[in-house]
From TrEMBL:
It holds the Pfam family Nitroreductase. This is NAD(P)H-dependent oxidoreductase. The lineage of its organism: Bacteria, Pseudomonadati, Bacteroidota, Flavobacteriia, Flavobacteriales. Belongs to the nitroreductase family. SUPFAM superfamilies: FMN-dependent nitroreductase-like. GO terms for molecular function: oxidoreductase activity. It comes from Pontimicrobium aquaticum. Residues 7-185 form the Nitroreductase domain.
Length: 209
């Protein structure tokens, strides 16, 4: 299984080679992988920013614990969840489903109402957690695809979401920066390259019931 070997190869890259850039072709593949990610009900209530602009990344670095990956990586992926699961967003999804699958819209309205009812049962805190969690599903796909393409990546929560929201104008779009992932190519001087992976042994991680 090639995926296992790819996952053994990847690691959370701490130092990127700023001179190496991800090709447009590979970047398009990564975008398609993220687009195909699963999400609850299929809603995909998030947006992904791919930041190339060096000036913006210099602004983001101080609010990312001054980590060098922010500026040295080829690209910076910022996964942003919508702060609300609005009825309009659900209606748009139902309309897109009807159009894509050539179905009668009225046949799908019941499913749309079901989604709205289920989300309305959540507390405000539960909705916030649920919306943020959706981005991690897409992040996982990105990391796996990067490993297959031998592109390095580093998922990061070490940043200030509120500052990101302000710098990137996310507040005005009803978005929140949930998790980030610089991608690119490892630097030869990254001291973590040769470190062994530390993972729980199978007998502790799994139970068969």
């Amino acid at each position: 299984m090639e995926l296992i070997e790819n996952l053994k190869w990847r690691y959370a890259t701490k130092k990127f080679d700023a001179s190496k850039k991800v090709s447009a072709n590979d970047l398009q593949k990564l975008k398609e992988v993220v687009q195909l990610s699963v999400s609850s009900y299929g809603l995909q209530l998030y947006k992904v920013l791919i930041i190339e602009n060096s000036e913006i990344r210099e602004q983001l670095k101080p609010v990312s614990w001054n980590q060098s990956q922010i500026t040295d990586a080829s690209h910076l992926f910022v996964f942003c969840n919508y702060t609300e699961a609005t009825p309009e967003a659900i209606d748009a999804f139902i309309e897109q489903t009807a159009e894509t699958r050539n179905l009668d819209l009225e046949r799908l309205n019941g499913y749309g109402n079901f989604i709205k009812e289920k989300l309305n049962e959540k507390t405000s805190e539960e909705k916030t957690s649920w919306l943020k969690s959706q981005t991690y599903l897409a992040l996982g796909n990105l990391l796996n695809a990067c490993a297959e393409l031998k592109i390095d990546a580093c998922p990061m929560e070490g940043f200030e979401p509120e500052a990101y929201n302000k710098i990137l104008g996310l507040d005005k779009q009803g978005l929140n920066a949930a998790v980030i992932a610089p991608i690119g190519y490892r630097h030869d001087e990254d001291h973590t390259i040769e470190q062994q992976k530390v993972r729980k042994p199978m007998e502790l991680l799994f139970d068969t019931i």
